[in-house]
Amino acid sequence: MSTDLGLQVQGIKDDYKYGFRDEMTYAFESGKGLTRAVVEQISEMKNEPSWMRELRLKALEVFWQKPTPQWGGDLTQLDYNDIRYYMKAADRQGKTWDDVPSEIKNTFERLGIPEAERKFLAGVGAQYESEVVYHSLREDLAKKGVIFVDTDTALREYPDLLREYFATIIPIHDNKFAALNSAVWSGGSFVYIPAGVKVDVPLQAYFRINAENMGQFERTLIIVEEGAQVHYVEGCTAPIYSTESLHSAVVEIVVKKGGRCRYTTIQNWANNIYNLVTKRAVAHEDALMEWVDGNLGSRLTMKYPAVYMVGKGARGEILSIAFAGKGQHQDAGAKVVHAAPYTSSRIISKSISKNGGRASYRGLLKVAQGAHGSKSNVVCDALILDSSSRSDTYPYIEIDEDDVKVGHEASVSKIGEEQLFYLMSRGLSEAEASTLIVSGFIEPLVKELPMEYAVEMNKLIQLQMEGSVG
Amino acid sequence: MSAELRIENLHVAIDGKEILKGVDLTIRKGEVHALMGPNGSGKSTLSYALMGHPNYEVTAGVATINGTDLLSMEADERAKAGLFLAFQYPTSIPGVTVANFLRHAVTNVRRPDRKEGEDLMPMRDFRKELREQMEALGVDGEFARRYLNEGFSGGEKKRAEVLQMAMLRPSFAILDETDSGLDIDAVRIVSEGVNRVAESQGTGVLVITHYKRILDYIKPSFVHILFGGRIVESGGPELVDRLEREGYDWIREKYPEAARDEDELEAKEAASLAV
After folding, report:
1. Which of B55, B91, B105 is nearest residue A427 as measured by Cβ atoms?
2. Most exposed: A54, A352, B41, B44, by fewest CB within 10 Å?
3. CB contact under 8 A, B164 and A426
4. Is some CB atom of chain B closer than 8 A to the CB atom of A470?
5. Rounded distance, CA A128 to CA A207, Å?
6. With an 8 Å Cβ cutoff, is A421 touching chain B?
7. What superfamily would CATH give domain B31-89+156-162+169-274?
8. What is the ipTM of this complex?
9. Taking CB atoms and an 8 Å cutoff, what residues of chain B touch A444?
10. In this predicted model, what pLDDT tens digit does every residue of A214-243 receive, in sequence order?
11. Distant-in-sequence, close-in-space partners of B262: CB < 8 Å, separation ≥ 6
């Protein structure tokens, strides 16, 4: 295994500890570029039912028709013809880590996944390039009817469930990248929590891109039945290359009456990755949907997790942290749509930009007519660490109902000279003082994470901050 | 090594304007000095310049701590060298607890050669010591978990400063108007805290104040009057009583040149406040 950290690659931060890569021979790869034949081949290899094959081909047409969005980050350097849309590293999926090819297993060992699984997870899925190479679920949960498999397996083993929900929350026409994902999707998680079942420890999926010029298009579908509860966590990393890779996922979630779902992302892609993801949940009566979204890596992220509150009393919460360093643009935010009475939402967004990075908050708050008694509170705070960095806020508010309570606060601050001086006068170096100020800034979010992830998040922030003060 | 904080002919400017025009002051280990003077005389400038605030430019003069040059050091190095400043207006740091901050500070100051990222002081030892110091200062246990200075009352902020002093055990401490905004009970409690630390550590203390009342609790052996950017009078506690009785008029008459500078500084401060 090569451990080239790519330190010499220009324009890439030198403190990314997940940047190692594996020398890998692939069981199959589609080659560069996207054609009808590639899509047909993916579907054929997966032995899919015809409805899915047709959905893919229709989505491909939509992808070709829709223009590349101009309103977010800069996508002009993204060359769709220079991407490999499907790569398969292992012939089959492991039920134990020993079944997983040793190079891949070593990679996940280095990322700490098996260890986390032993310590505090109820189930794990591990995706490498296009396919999920390992999957597990605690036995007692399986006995209760909980399903946690990769989405390809779900299509074979639970075709009716999949057909009922697939592409209903995020239709193929939704946006260009949702269409792309629908055409070439592979892997991702399928989670089904039966009515009344509460999964008390997190399920985790881990996504790893290893190859250069790779496109990863996982597709995740989570169904939380009435009164059920789940916490799903995803993490992602990739090696550093000088050319661009693309990660474009679609995540659809349904939370039924009184159910609760929390979806936590710690996105730490290498800085050559375009991360263009569509995530949306529908919350029914008295359901609670929470997105906790940490964006630390990638070259450009465009991601706005959404909650559509369609049942009376539904709640949506979106907490996001974005960290934009050198050469990075985090265009992240949130969407909440109040489509029923007495629904409530809360958005807290915190961004940090340094070394020329750019962090944008882009949010939509929509209250439909008839969603009376609803309330929403939006807070977005930005911290800028130096004069070469940038922060923007794009809040969109559409309210078609009179009886609502809406609050919106935004703040932008620079690390204060007085704060730095105060901490330094107590013996903290400038770098330590900055790190402490940043960790304090994101504290309200980090404390929402389970302990293990809070520790990890703090470590990541420390890594990001190292060498940031000149 | 001479155990003293020594300031010679110190000139300090802010934005190119000279505020301190040659200050001389020596404080030896264990001594308590008071520095008094009207608004705008340069008292806070002296404390900020000694602690190393980047906006305060030292244009001439020397300052040493225990024989080591202070002026070439960054603020954190000055803290490690044994200097402490209790701020008049401590800044709040949202999201950072008093305990977390202090553990970093105490570790660095007690182990000046610690490299970044190396272990902090063991949690158990730190907590025990912090609890003892908080009890001695009459501070509620909850205090350690609050965010540093955020939402603190005036009295809480000053107690937090003295708590930091107690934990950092400096060899020299400057208290910049630590009595301002405090009621008489709070002045007493905070002063007792300072005395306790100073006595146990042999700390040399410089009390900067407008008022006599804190000096009833922290009793200075030496009193200096800063006027027009320099120390014009030095003496014993009798100076405090004279200022209390007569104000600064006799100083103005005795030092007309300093009085002109003082008026200029005051006018400047008034103008900057009016903006």
Report:
1. B105
2. A54
3. yes
4. no
5. 6
6. yes
7. P-loop containing nucleotide triphosphate hydrolases (3.40.50.300)
8. 0.95
9. 95
10. 999 999 999 999 999 999 999 988 888 888
11. B38, B40, B41, B227, B228, B229, B252
